[in-house]
Amino acid sequence: MAGSDSGGGAGIQADLKTMLALGTHGMSVITAVTAQNSVGVQGYWELPAEAVRAQFRSVVDDIGVQAVKTGMLASVELVETVADLLAGVDAPVVVDPVGVSKHGDALLAAEAVATVRERLLPVATLATPNLHEVTQLTGLEVTGERDMAAAAEALLGYGPAWVLIKGGHLEGEAADLLVGADGSAHWYRASRYDNRHTHGTGCTLASAIAAELAKGAAMPEAVAGAKEYVTGAIRGGFALGAGIGPVDHAWRWR
Question: Is 198 in the active site?
């Protein structure tokens, strides 16, 4: 459940590529259409709530799901619609609370932030905010690893079972922190690659976690597998267009 990226690097396109690469069958509920390329988002158009509901019911009622991942939801109405739909799903729900694009373009209306906190996070099995989204949702600024645990606790207060704080915007290692409502904590670390072509990283990680959960992995193991996959995809990111190119979803096949 996410927006369509016409450039093919993020959004629904990244989700489906990731799910295929990890041996699962992805299906799509498109919430918005973007005009987007390597240099930015030139515009986006939300789909009507009834179109989102119809897509969801079509695939869930016939085919079923073993995991759900959400991305760009754009507006209050779409966040509320998706939250209502997910409340009736008996499967893990990975919420990537998309607020801005890789290029800094807003993908969530300011008035919808509170709705994400109050309606969407409570139905999430896992929330995967980056550091900008942590600030957007909690008001906390994460400037180093020492701040990540407090950020996770603040987000857990809104109701998800797990929170993964992504430290990709910090200096040094690419370190992420997974914290559960049960108090468990897991760090995931990877080398940082000098590669600016990282479009779609957040979508790819969240979709990879959902794919691993769908295959039956427990949350800490699902995140570990997804972290390994997205690290390879970042390492293989390639120049496409004049700006920030995408990660390589097919890196394991090359």
Answer: yes
